[in-house]
Amino acid sequence: MLEVELDIFSGRPNPTWQLSEKEEKQLMDRVVAEPAQLSATSPSEEDFGLGYRGFVVRQIKQDNGPWSTTKRPTGVRFAAGLTAPRGLLPLEFRAGSKSGKGTSVADFLLKTSERRGSPATDVLREVVRGGVSRVPALKGPVEPPTRAKAAAALRTPKQIGVEGATWWACPSAYYNANAAIFNDPQYVTQNNCYCFASNHLANSRYALPGRRGGQPATSITCAGVTAGLRADGWVDTCQTNALTIAMVIWPGMDYHFYRVVTAGPAWWWGHKPGGTPARYTDNSGRALANGLAPSNCDRGPYTDFCGFFYQNNLTAFVA
Fold it and tell me: What gap in Å lies between CA 6 and CA 129, rounded to an integer?
């Protein structure tokens, strides 16, 4: 039995649905015809941004369906990183980021979402038709400097600022550019944007503001998610030795968070789009530093900027 996950949200659970045996057979025929369309669920060569990142298909049950029982045809090879029992088809894979010469596997999977009661809405399907969100590779630094270089930069300050922002006036803060820890293979798919912003390896793929505080956010609006943040202990005034985060909203759809990871004068920010690697660049590939911040960067569909929040903790526990 196969489950399809539309990888499109950063904070909330992604839409999922199961394929019928007939759909399994149709998918199998397409995959065998062009196995190059498949990639690992966390491909190291892909830089995904906020928004649509393809489909993740996984076998959730060993049954008598065609995917579980069909032997892999001789000569069919799959990309490195795909786990498949000897002589059988992969147990989990990503589709959508690799193009094909024939019928697109991703197009077929999108078609299977068009069913009564589908969690994939027309709005989401329209986003999918726009293609996978990839972050372009631009010239220049894409991550904060080492501690030594950062210390030298502090001795040569320069004037920066973001209009309407207060975060950089809160110098007593906790900074940690630790994307590499969250990007470790054992953690990367198990922690979302809220986990990274809170500096908590919670292994809670869909950590929700307010759940740990007993008042989980109930509406995907600035006000609704802010209420959840307050229940978890976040405030909108400077705190001593605090984490500093920013929240944005894809109206009615999803929430996303950023965390400031270095002090001035550059003030680097980081964020983690869902179960994909954390990064220090925006959706246009620009470094989130030197005046480019969550309030004025390219955030893809997350158009509503909700503000900056602080918590007097090195780790703000989430659930």
Answer: 12
Q: Is 318 helix (H, G, I), strand (E, B) or coil?
A: coil
pLDDT digits 0-9 by tens, 59-83: 999 888 889 888 888 778 888 778 7
141 pLDDT tier (thresholds 50, 70, 90) = confident
CB-based contacts of 297, cutoff 8 Å, min separation 6: 282, 283, 284, 286, 288
Contact (Cβ atoms closer than 8 angstroms) between residue 302 and residue 50: yes
**CB-based contact 48:242 (threshold 8 Å):** no
Could you tell me which residues are beta bridge partners of residue 305?
Answer: 248
Give the 3-state secondary structure of residue 242: strand
One DSSP character per residue, 267-286 reads --EEE--TTS--BSB-TTS-
Instruction: For the chain, give the mean pLDDT.
Output: 89
Q: How far apart are CA 122 and CA 124, in angstroms?
A: 5
Between vectors from CA 142 to CA 138 and to CA 146, what angle results, nearest 5°?
150
Average pLDDT of 115-137?
A: 94
- The DSSP secondary-structure symbol of 2 reads E
